[in-house]
Amino acid sequence: MFRVAKVASPPCSVNRAGEALAEWPGDGNLSRASVSARVWARTELAVWPMSRDTLPEIIWRLNFICESADSMARTPSSHSASRAAANAPAERARWLREQLERANYAYYVLDQPELPDAEYDKLFKELEQVEAAHPDLITPDSPTQRVGGEVASGFEPVTHDMPMLSLNNGFSDEDIAAFDKRVSDALGHAPVDYACELKFDGLAISLRYVDGRFMQAATRGDGATGENVTENVRTIRSIPLTLKGRRVPKVLDVRGEVLMFKRDFERLNERQREAGHREFANPRNAAAGSLRQLDPKITAQRPLSFFAYGIGVLEGEPMPDTHSGLLDWYHEMGLPVNSQRAVVQGADGLLGFFGKVGGKRDALPYDIDGVVYKVNRRDQQEALGFVSRAPRFALAHKFPAQEALTTLVAIDVQVGRTGAITPVARLEPVFVGGATVTNATLHNEDEVRRKDIRIGDTVIVRRAGDVIPEVVGALIERRPADAKEFVMPTACPVCGSAIERLPDEAIARCSGGLFCPAQRKQALWHFAQRRALDIDGLGEKIIDQLVEQNLVRTPADLFNLGFATLAALDRFADKSAQNLLDSLDKARHTTLARFIYALGIRHVGESTAKDLAKHFGSLDPIIRASVDELLEVNDVGPIVAEAIHQFFAEEHNLTVIEQLRAPGRVTWTEGPPAPKAPQGVLAGKTIVLTGTLPTLAREDAKAMLEAAGAKVAGSVSKKTDYVVAGTEAGSKLAKAEELGVPVLDEEGMRKLLERQTT
What we know:
CATH class of the largest domain: Alpha Beta
Protein name: DNA ligase
Cofactor: Mg(2+); Mn(2+)
Distance between the termini: 91 Å
Oligomer: single chain
CATH architecture of the largest domain: 2-Layer Sandwich
Pfam families: BRCT (PF00533), DNA_ligase_aden (PF01653), DNA_ligase_ZBD (PF03119), HHH_2 (PF12826), HHH_5 (PF14520), OB_DNA_ligase (PF03120)
CATH superfamily of the largest domain: DNA ligase/mRNA capping enzyme
Shape: globular
GO cellular component, one term: cytosol
Binding site for Zn(2+): 492, 495, 516
């Protein structure tokens, strides 16, 4: 299809319009020559094949380039124009404002960032400097004027010239079918075209533009009167301070939504935590609270966004014939319009759009609580009119609420497959997210403390899609006098073993890993892994049956299983039973390292298990070892040492280990402990070798250092104690100097080795 669009007026040249289109990242089918041939600057018309979706962007880019060309045409040459822009403050300020406005448009409207943040900040700072030196150059719509309003004592009321009405709601398929029937019957026409768009979970506002300049912003309020939040809204970078294009109305009221994207909400809460301030419960609360700050500088620090979706007063330009046309016009003028919209027909089309949006709701970068349907044709909207405080031509189709209020009755703890202890909220039943919720996760003890959630509180419960319900926060103002703080139990509610929490970990855990029924399946599965006891044929489904039929409680019980018991399992043939028995027999003799790994001690992997076996030689010294003694093992740090110590301090685990060591169960060959590591100035030090040493090969130097108890590493870090550098030392030497790591030559290394032996 060919479209005709009004572009720039003379003196913009054909070639410059062609350049504007050639810059546009389209489908690549239009060459510069073919575009230029279709541009008639004298008639102000350009004709080319395109989709309607790309038209506003192309028009904007044409206008921007042509406006620049018009400006340049007033100067002798492009080179002299550049010199004038650089030397004349007024021209420089104008050019900087244009660049910043263009970058904002590309980022917030086109969603195609074209200027790196660092470059944007550089231009912004330069504009601030130019305006500071020449205050007479400051314009109301300058990007620097977004922040600067005084702290207000309150918000002035604003009367909306055209009321900001609410919408009637629909919740079921039947509600939507009934809405479509009412509209069709009233119009005497079917099917009806509807414009469908998202219903944002934010704060509705009205923006007033006069002659294309942003003049005022007001909240919805009661629909007739809102609050003046102009200075705060001015700080929102996605809202243009000046409208673009050739059809800018004399007066325009833009209706839309201020919201906060999920990623921005998470970053804001992270900053709140770091500053020791209370976190926001959800993005909507954060957006509303940010918009109603009395100090615009605070609002400017909050990452707010905006989408336009409606209109109030319009003077000086004709109203578009359709709602979809209105949004296209907004887009052309530089206003952010959401791309998740469509024009459909009839109830089936409405429900199809609802289902499509619902399927990707959780993946959207912002929160929505439904979709909005509007009769697309403006004349049909006018024919349908309004009822009470809502239009007859529109309906909000709401998703089931994702958040709801209820009472926190109790806090219990549950034990996960790996022993993790999770506080769980027991709630008064509440319908949220399409289901009745009675339990919700509280994640961990620190989260309960941070959110200050207490038994008896009125809490906000969130359930989104298939996500486990969670308690978002408590309404402190509703807290009863007898509300009780949560106390983490010290013993596992399932097996009675001690609950332990390692330093720097948020999760507390049951220490009865081999004994606890809640961890039984996980413990058995790990015990049978190839790198552990390698019990071939003992898969998850077999473990499920053995545990659920109470045939196996601990790993030691595996070695009591007989042929008849295994053959009786569901879908377990005689051959499979015999193969598993053979694997169990083979597993009866293993190595100490495999046995240690099979115990499933937290933080103890295959490598650490080998280091423990090598260092101690037998199991009993490991069981008796103190944390300090465990720290002597290669690559065992404080957290790992504490985890090992806690595991063997739990009596239930020791009982299972003794059962496994009983005659006829599991055996291994034990040996003497490894010789004590050398003691001296190099013991435990990390050293990096680089370059060529005068008399020593690198391998010889490495052997000498390791014999002295040092660890020779391959790269330099803050943990490096020394770097030994020879000739042609490269990046490792530079890194050492950057980090302040001591650098030795071969002679210095030998002196350290001599001190080691004296």
